[in-house]
Amino acid sequence: MAPEPPLLSMSGITKSFPGVRALDGVDLDVQAGEVHCLLGQNGAGKSTLIKVLAGAHQPDTGRLRWRGEEVALRSPIAAMRLGIATIYQELDLVEHLSVAENVHLGHEPTTAGFVVRGKAARQSTAALLRRLGHPEIDPARLVGELPAAQQQIVSMARALSHDVRLIVMDEPSAALDPDEVDNLFRIVGDLTAEGVAVVYISHRLEEIRRIGDRVTVLKDGRAVAVGLPAKSTPTREVVALMTGRNVEYVFPERPTAPAQQDTPLLEVQGLARQGEFEPLDLVVHPGEIVGLAGLVGSGRSEILETVYGARKPTSGQVVVDGKALKPGSVRAAVRAGIGLAPEERKAQALLMLESVTRNVSVSSMSRFSRAGWIDRRAELGAARAATRELSLRPDNPSVPIRTLSGGNQQKAVLARWLLRGCRILLLDEPTRGVDVGARAELYAVVRRLADEGLGVLLVSSEVPEVLGLADRVLVLREGRVVHRAPARELDEHRVLDLVMEGSPAS
Ligand SMILES: Nc1ncnc2c1ncn2[C@@H]1O[C@H](COP(=O)(O)OP(=O)(O)OP(=O)(O)O)[C@@H](O)[C@H]1O
Ligand SMILES: [Mg+2]
Questions:
Q1: Most CB atoms within 10 A, among 69, 138, 239, 361?
Q2: What per-residue confidence (pLDDT) applies to 506?
Q3: What share of the chain is helix, strand, coil (3-state, %, to 5)?
Q4: Where does 263-337+423-441+455-505 sit in CATH, by number?
Q5: β-sheet bridge partners, residue 219
């Protein structure tokens, strides 16, 4: 008997956009029941490749075989009919429709040829949500009201509502905390046990070790390694393939002398928001990086947004340079030198229709305007300097920001605050979606900014990141600080214990 052909094989796939060759002759084969990981730096072409696979982009050249037979995926529907489902990096749900409507969008359940709406759709959605380990999500809720992690579950329910043979996940874990990642991996395990193939994209190498079978590495639109064993290929080798150099995944050194302790830059005094977080006191001195560790839902983002003035506190105040800011005023916060790089960058931070330049300069426009005229050369020059500092790709700030890869969009948000010259930087999940090589650069930039006298308040779900980058750490659980310590006195286990079941600090 001839050996089974792979479930999917792509060969010689190329795809160009104006000025960029995103894919340049990529080969990929995926077997039924395997987890095939795609790795590569920001802009390497991962999302473009899976959009070709999802029928969302038409390749310029190349072939696709499905169970040995050549197919053309002319539309997302064609891919869906074969049993290919995709969970995108930037979720594509309709916010003003309910969970059940999103799950069944384009293929309402039918009985005897009649579309069944309402109750039947809600019941089948509820069954899918149970299977995904999230029975608490109400199928009748509007998707726009759900937090990011639950929206992703909805996206997954939509994928499973079809008879799926191959499921593609583009950075699914980026918005999840450790418990939810475990749940995701359980789902992946169930699917592969049933013979479903999974194509998995992540910047977290430890995840690829945990669930991956094989790894394909993309670099500059080419597959530089195809189908390496996921568990046994040394990290050094994987990183070298991705970056073309040897990068150490290291954190910058902390200054030998601790930051000046007598003149706080930022003081948060008894700040609270009812139902979100309890009265919080903290100080950030110039030169200091303070980290907030905690699970999704522990109030971390809410705290940053309240300090930034985007939410009004129920009590307490934010003090900069000894002066209390008007509560709930972003304008007052920005004027005092506070900058926020938010978690949901697409929805909250980016002007998707504008260029990279404008996205970077938008908070510093007064520097480039004279009597109503914008000095575009100065604006472009400044944006270019800020984006180079973060190795943003492509190295052309005139392109629209929506054409950038996920990780590079994130870098643009950070470049904005670099340019703004703010003195207090609030960073919410700064490396979500940022590749290994660029992370090290980003950490170095943040530390350098601190060395130059900035104060940084950092939130991250990745405990090693908080411990590696921050000087001092506050551990949060359900809106309350349960522990405070210098970062070097903590380790990952201790922090995870505290965030899961810590008792309040005395
Ligand atoms: N619609 C588009 N128009 C123009 N250029 C695009 C478009 N989509 C992607 N690109 C470019 O193609 C290249 C590959 O992007 P892609 O989104 O596939 O990267 P990625 O590997 O998914 O990166 P990340 O890890 O940051 O998400 C990038 O240079 C990107 O700017
Ligand atoms: Mg991507």
A1: 361
A2: 39
A3: 35, 25, 40
A4: 3.40.50.300
A5: 222
